Description:
Layout: H1 3-9, H2 43-60, E1 66-70, E2 85-92, E3 98-104, E4 111-113, H3 117-129, H4 131-142, H5 155-160, H6 164-167
Antiparallel strand pairs: 1-2, 2-3, 3-4
Helix pairs in contact: 2-3
Amino acid sequence: MTLAMELRARQCTRCGGSGQYRAYGKCFACNGTGHMASLPTAPEERKRLADRTSLNAVLASIPASRYALPNVGAGKAADGSWLRWDFFEVVERRGGRRYLNRLVGAPGDWSREWLSLTLQTYAAGHIAEDPRSAAIAYAQQHGRCAVCDAPLSNPESIARSMGPICAKRFA
Length: 171
């Protein structure tokens, strides 16, 4: 049985087969209710969708990599350097959708922390202002390439804060 035949056999009888099935058997178009869903009516839901759309646009402009942003709440040292940094990762999943995770731990042993839509928007906005400098800050904090997370050992790569191949992403 081909995929098209399988989808046709599993079409929603309530909405006339106008949507695709989800894994648990409800149509995308009607969600099993039998009528087509329109745009959300609640203002909060419309705002959430608009926020997610704007976040997707911002994340699309940022290369998939690791980034460091200063933790403003921790303040600065006497020499003017930031006392604490927060680390983030922009990842691209199947279908081209991008997400922003907070990295917790240490390079090579990172754990990824899910961020709320508000925090993702805030961090992505700051990274998008200058992605290259945020990636360089990550490399300077850890001595690793921001793109592939490999240790930097070549003097030219250390000066550039990323390897030659990865630097092309930020050209």
